[in-house]
Design a protein that fits this description.
By secondary structure, the chain is of the alpha/beta class. The protein has one domain: Undecaprenyl pyrophosphate synthetase, CATH 3.40.1180. It is 40% helix and 14% strand. The chain has helices at 31-36, 42-63, 82-105, 121-134, 150-166, 177-181, 229-240; strands spanning 23-27, 67-74, 108-113, 140-148, 194-197, 216-219. Helix 4 links the parallel strand 3 (108-113) and strand 4. It is globular, with a radius of gyration of 19 Å.
Length: 249
């Protein structure tokens, strides 16, 4: 459980601190296009994208947002060129090793959601180390969706519940939304209030399909490496102009 800081740092004056989203999710799209537009290899875009994510996490912490979920690697991303996939796996591992101490000192509690069994063993070791080292932190939750797919997540939850029914430990009428959510990768993590997608793509790409039933969507043409605090400010301002009714009048 995270706690909001008593004093927010540098919150823009036109944002209402009482109406900020508790949980923001991001689809970080446009790294490759950003690099290509500058005559650089795609991996340079991914490196720059890491810096953008790090700054966004710090901004969320400063402004009192309790959780940030980043779509780092989808189940479909395995279809990319092998060299790019290998680079991303190595990059994830290096980032965890390099940034862990700072996350610990800044109160970041890191979680990973997805099918981690398919990841390289060395990366899984770094993930486990990071999760254990930050498990007591309460300033902000940082959820990293890695080898994540919304449909796969729902299927594995269904299989787990079906197994309990088959074994006689659960009756079909006992299956509720609450019970179902306990079998998702995100069990214990609140649903996102706001999803931000960069690069202008108008789709959710198999991301948090169950969890985003009432999430507010914000799409910007800005490519992810250029998504800075001012862009985040615009997204939050837009969010605060909306009226979230959750199906009610």
């Amino acid at each position: 459980m995270t706690t909001k800081p008593s004093v927010l740092r540098n919150l823009p004056a036109d944002l209402d601190a009482q109406r900020l989203p508790n949980h923001v999710a991001v689809i970080m799209d446009g790294n490759g296009r950003w690099a290509k537009g500058r005559g650089m290899p795609r991996f340079m875009g991914h490196r720059r994208g890491v810096d953008t994510l790090k700054e966004l996490l710090r901004c969320c912490k400063d402004w009192g947002i309790q959780a940030l979920t980043a779509y780092a690697f989808s189940t479909e991303n395995w279809g990319r060129p092998l060299t790019e996939v290998d680079f991303l796996m190595t990059l994830f591992e290096r980032i965890l090793r390099r940034e862990l101490q700072e996350m610990v000192s800044e109160g970041v509690q890191i979680h990973f959601v997805g099918d981690l069994s398919a990841l390289p063993a060395s990366l899984r070791e770094e993930i486990e180390r990071a999760v254990m080292a930050t498990r007591q932190n309460q300033r902000i939750q940082f959820i990293v969706a890695t080898n994540y797919g919304g449909r796969d997540e729902i299927l594995q939850a269904c299989r787990a519940i079906a197994t309990q029914v088959k074994q006689g430990h659960l009756q079909p009428e006992q299956i509720t939304q609450t019970l179902f959510e306990q079998h998702l990768y995100t069990a214990g993590i609140g649903d996102p209030d706001l999803l931000i997608r960069t690069s202008g793509e108008m789709r959710i790409s198999n991301f948090l399909l169950w969890q985003m039933a009432y999430t507010e969507l914000y799409v910007t043409d800005t490519l992810w490496p250029e998504f800075d605090r001012s862009e985040f400010h615009r997204a939050l301002y837009d969010y605060q102009q909306r009226h979230r009714r959750f199906g009610r009048i």
